[in-house]
Amino acid sequence: MTFRKKSFRILFLCFIFGAAFNTYAQHISPLEGRWDLEMDFMGKTVPSWLEIRHSGTATLLGRFVFAFGSARPISEVKTYGDNKFTFSIPNQWEPKGSDMIFHGELTDGKMKGTMIFTDGSVMHWTGVKAPELAYTENPKWDKPINVFNGKDLTGWHVDGEKNQWVINDGVLTSPESGSNLVTDQKFKDFKLHVEFRYPQGSNSGIYLRGRYEVQIVDSEGLEPMDIYLGGVYGFLEPNENASKPAGEWQTYDITLIGRRVTVTLNGKTVICDATIPGITGGAIDSKEGEPGPFMIQGDHGPIEYRSFVVTPRKE
């Protein structure tokens, strides 16, 4: 091939790739991105989360997290008018009925809309773009804090009507389903060390900043999944199942800086420096740009803790 033909071929390919890129850029919708939502639900304001992204050059799809449950896929987000959209998702933990149907619009960089619940009731919601959370490489760490003192619930408060939490021989214990337990202190970036134990078939979790649940559930011998021990519920799957049998003491060592999390279960790193996309079901709120507490899930099954140590990042 002559130099002239080679030059022509290169220019032609550049034109094709350039045209494809321009077409792609023209189809990026202002709806795309991750959105922190607040929803009026059963007389309360509950946190939710929405992700919209393109597939190919014209189709929009995404994921949605409600006040409870895991991230649910959205097969298609249909747009109409000026920055208006609609989508539907099947129920998960909600009462049986119709799919949940969303209508929304984007105005001045903020979202608002309605959701038709499975029972036909209409709920209003608002949303703002999820913030970028700064990552600090090789941070300096402050002194460790023993959040649980081994004696009482000093430094904690119950989130609910029933306080089933007790201290038995220096062990923080939830013997039955009841209320979640929340730290009074809030944290931004940190390292966390916990030692926990659960009986056969039990289910719990630890919410980082009160928003991102690291799952605790009896799952020895099962294939690794985000809904099992070692996963960030509904989002991040552990690379192996490092669970011990129910009834044995187990350890979590978790580092969270910005959105990037590393999870070590029983001495094995099962999630390494991965990005948490957004809040998980059951979060305290959707204010991702703010520091938040730790929350221990106590509304599912029995759980015990004998150590809960937090090392904050030095500001």
TrEMBL record:
This is DUF1080 domain-containing protein. The keyword Signal applies. Keywords: Signal. The keyword Signal applies. The lineage of its organism: Bacteria, Pseudomonadati, Bacteroidota, Flavobacteriia, Flavobacteriales. It comes from Flagellimonas pelagia. It holds the Pfam family 3keto-disac_hyd. Residues 1-25 form the signal peptide. One of its GO terms (molecular function) is hydrolase activity. Residues 144-309 form the 3-keto-alpha-glucoside-1,2-lyase/3-keto-2-hydroxy-glucal hydratase domain.
